[in-house]
Fold this sequence. Notes:
Blueprint: H1 6-19, E1 32-34, H2 42-53, E2 56-57, E3 66-69, H3 75-80, H4 88-114, H5 126-150
Helix pairs in contact: 1-4
Amino acid sequence: MYRVSPFTYWIAGVMNTALGNTPVKCSKTELLPFMPFGNVTCGEYMAPYMKVAGGYLVDPTSTLECQYCKMNNTNAYLGSMNALDLSRWQNFGIFWVYNIVNIAITIFLYWFVRVPKKEGNILLHPARWFSFWKKNDKVYSDVLVAKLESDDSV
């Protein structure tokens, strides 16, 4: 449902502009500590994984304890929210088209319901729709009352 709201696209554009391509520095509580297997450095051990998943090592030359942060820039986070740099103008356009269409519909409905129109076509007079039904209901109820009054069995 969040795709229906124009604010989804507006927030994505604002976040992309404000946070895009910004380097990330993880705090000590966000770092993942682990020991590399064998007699290799942290950089050699994690190179294939970081090529696919991204992130960075605090000390890639260490052989004792590695500290890994899963994000090296904000684009990884923005990508998980579909707020990438590629969709910035698309989001901007969707936001404005949504607002312009809503304004146009509001103006049309105001004109349709409130602005006086020439006599004739009942379809152009929404206020007459209800008066038409009231007249028919009155006629129907009058006929029903007359029938009940003439019926002796009731």
